[in-house]
Amino acid sequence: MAAGSGAPARGGAGEGGAAPFFTVVTPTLDSERFLAETMRSVAAQREGGRVRVEHVVVDGGSTDGTEAIVRSFAHPDTRFVRQTGKGGPAAAIEQGLSSARGAFLSWLNSDDVLAPGALERAAAVFARRPRAALCFGRCRIVDASGAEIRRGVTAFKNAWFPLSCHAAIRTLNYVSQPASFFRREARDRAGALRTDLVAAWDYDWTLRLWRQGGAAVVPGPPLASFRWTPGSISGANYRRQFAEELAVARADAGRFAPSALLHALVARGIVFCYDRMARRRAP
Fold first, then answer.
1. What pLDDT, in 10s, does the model give residues 134-180?
2. Left (φ > 0), alpha (ψ -120 to 50) or beta: where does 62 sit?
3. Is the C-alpha dihedral spanning 269, 272, 274, 276 positive or negative?
4. What distance in Å separates the CA atoms of residue 142 and residue 129, rounded to the nearest whole number?
5. What is the sign, positive or negative, of the torsion defined by CA atoms of 102, 107, 109, 113?
6. 23/107 Cα distance (integer angstroms)
7. Considering the entire predicted model, what is its pTM?
8. How many domains in the chain?
9. 227 phi, psi to nearest 5 deg
């Protein structure tokens, strides 16, 4: 397994018979509890050789067994690098994306997992939709044990897929980040991730990417599983998350645009539901 932070030569997008080349960036900090499962799900994407997968793990200074776990998945296209400078997960992801070689990019948090064949299915959609800046599909929500939870939340997001357009994504963030992938050239045009946001920098990124060529839905079963726990960013900071999402939707659409006004109403209803769920979990 390679180590270091240098940026190797960049790969192609599958032209001339070459396998589509994806880079998956994983930010991590003391992640030994779930990291092996995450790593295994990325490594499995290489089976059959129909896609090439680079996995860049950016570590923020772990003191547990994180590095040893990464190095146990030895592969020429797997790299362990240490985060330079300060910043949270957005800064770590940005560092990984800056050194990525793939023509298609994504990030996967160190407790989330890709479904078998997810990248191959994404590559097929990109081939059919050559102008699309990003593609996305269904995503399960699971708990610490891997059991599916919050099926109602998932169903609510999925219900927006047939309506998918720029106005719809401004109204509600129905794109689940672990199940979304984007083109390198769209990333270069959209600019860097915002590190000033605590919980909505992925939604801000989706809105900016959407302006670079739109999005395509990947049909079929879930592409990934997102692990939700009470201590996760979306679990502990959901009020901050929806406030930030409203702010970035207003910045993208305009404060009094119909989609922004609808977003405010939808967000208020979602926070009300999340508050009720939080009270049910309280002892």
1. 999 999 999 999 999 999 999 999 999 999 999 999 999 999 999 99
2. beta
3. negative
4. 30
5. negative
6. 8
7. 0.91
8. 1
9. -90, 115
Boundaries of domain holding 159: 2-281
Q: Which two tokens stand for residue 238?
A: 């959901």
| Beta strands across the sheet bearing 180-183 | 2-3, 78-82, 52-59, 21-28, 104-107, 180-183, 134-136, 215-217
Q: How far apart are CA 133 and CA 220, in angstroms?
A: 20
Q: Which of 272, 250, 268 is nearest to 259 (CA)?
A: 250
So what's the pLDDT on residue 280?
Answer: 72
Tens-place pLDDT, residues 45-62: 999 999 999 999 999 999
Average pLDDT over residues 218-243: 85
Q: What is the radius of gyration, based on Cα positions, of the chain?
A: 18
Q: What is the pLDDT of residues 233-245, one digit of tens each?
A: 655 678 899 999 9
CATH number at residue 177: 3.90.550.10
Q: CA 228 to CA 171: how far, in whole Å? A: 23
Average pLDDT over residues 117-126: 98
